[in-house]
């Protein structure tokens, strides 16, 4: 009977691993087919991702509609999340979930109450560390939206930093070929997929609606705090005021940005060296010494010249 139970358990886990393997194969084939269909039918991957984001935002709004009831309370209890700070975070993160300041403020209070309810429930059920849960769960619920939105801001600005050198080179090449700035931006952003496309697509839309170019540039500065991106936009504003060729501005900015990236890589490499030394000193070296000492002890006890053979 015991052998049958063991065989059943082994067969179960074998089937689970087999299902995971085939599911992974299915996902890989699905991505391949979707990529092929996108190439054949000339579907823009950016538009497909944007559609998915909109669907996720609509679903999130339906789920969090009860947070609006706590909006007034959330605006009064605004520790680490005053209204102007939340508005800036939403603007610089691209607001992928289409949140308003009021709903964000209500959401943190709503999650605070959910955390408090879960803490009380854990005490009733008698879960381990329940006395700590009733304190930490509400705090976690309150700070989760703040942490997530700030992480989204940082992630988006890093993506802009990564795509900016290639974007600058491509636009500069187009401008040197005699293409106007507006036309170059419209064509070049089609080959990018990320925040930098979102920003310049919105910039082009504002220009089409009659917004002055300088004001559209100022809006770009307000939506992004990336130093390299701000340097580019300020250079464009200055070039527009002083009459400096735009192609030259893009070329200079691209060269400067690559130089900055090289210096950052060197700085990270210099910071990594002491960390590697610490790992080697406190982890690898002691383990190596213990292995050598263990082999020596085993040889002394069990080898041909062991101490037991001497008696």
Automatic annotation (TrEMBL):
Pfam families: T2SSF. It comes from the Bacteria. It is a multi-pass membrane protein. Its main location: membrane. Keywords: Cell membrane, Membrane, Transmembrane, Transmembrane helix. The keyword Transmembrane helix applies. Residues 167-292 form the Type II secretion system protein GspF domain. The keyword Membrane applies. The chain crosses the membrane at residues 6-24, 107-126, 132-149, 276-302. It is found in: Cell membrane. InterPro entries: T2SS_GspF_dom, T2SS_GspF_sf. This is Type II secretion system F family protein. It comes from Virgibacillus tibetensis.
């Amino acid at each position: 009977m015991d052998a049958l139970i063991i065989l059943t358990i082994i067969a179960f886990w074998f089937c689970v691993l087999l299902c995971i393997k085939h599911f992974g194969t299915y996902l890989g084939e699905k991505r391949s087919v979707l990529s092929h269909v996108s190439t054949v039918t000339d579907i823009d991957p950016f538009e497909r991702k944007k559609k998915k984001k909109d669907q996720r935002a609509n679903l999130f709004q339906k789920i969090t509609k009860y947070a609006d009831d706590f909006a007034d309370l959330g605006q009064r209890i605004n520790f680490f999340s005053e209204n102007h700070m939340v508005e800036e975070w939403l603007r610089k993160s691209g607001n992928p979930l289409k949140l308003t300041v009021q709903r964000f403020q209500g959401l943190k209070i709503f999650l605070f109450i959910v955390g408090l309810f879960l803490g009380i429930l854990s005490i009733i059920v008698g879960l381990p560390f329940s006395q700590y849960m009733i304190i930490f769960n509400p705090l976690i619920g309150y700070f989760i939206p703040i942490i997530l939105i700030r992480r989204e801001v940082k992630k988006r600005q890093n993506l802009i930093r990564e795509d900016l050198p290639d974007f600058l080179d491509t636009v500069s090449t187009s401008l040197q070929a005699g293409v106007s700035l507006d036309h170059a931006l419209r064509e070049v952003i089609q080959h990018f997929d990320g925040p930098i496309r979102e920003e310049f697509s919105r910039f082009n839309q504002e220009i089409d609606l009659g917004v002055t170019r300088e004001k559209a540039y100022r809006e770009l500065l307000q939506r992004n705090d990336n130093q390299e991106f701000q340097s580019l936009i300020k250079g464009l504003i200055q070039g527009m005021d002083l009459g400096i060729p735009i192609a030259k501005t893009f070329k200079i900015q691209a060269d400067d940005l690559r130089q900055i990236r090289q210096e950052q890589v060197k700085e990270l490499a210099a910071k990594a060296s002491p960390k590697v030394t610490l790992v080697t000193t406190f982890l690898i070296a002691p383990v190596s010494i213990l292995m050598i000492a263990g082999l020596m002890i085993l040889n002394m006890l069990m080898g041909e010249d062991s101490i037991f053979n001497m008696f």
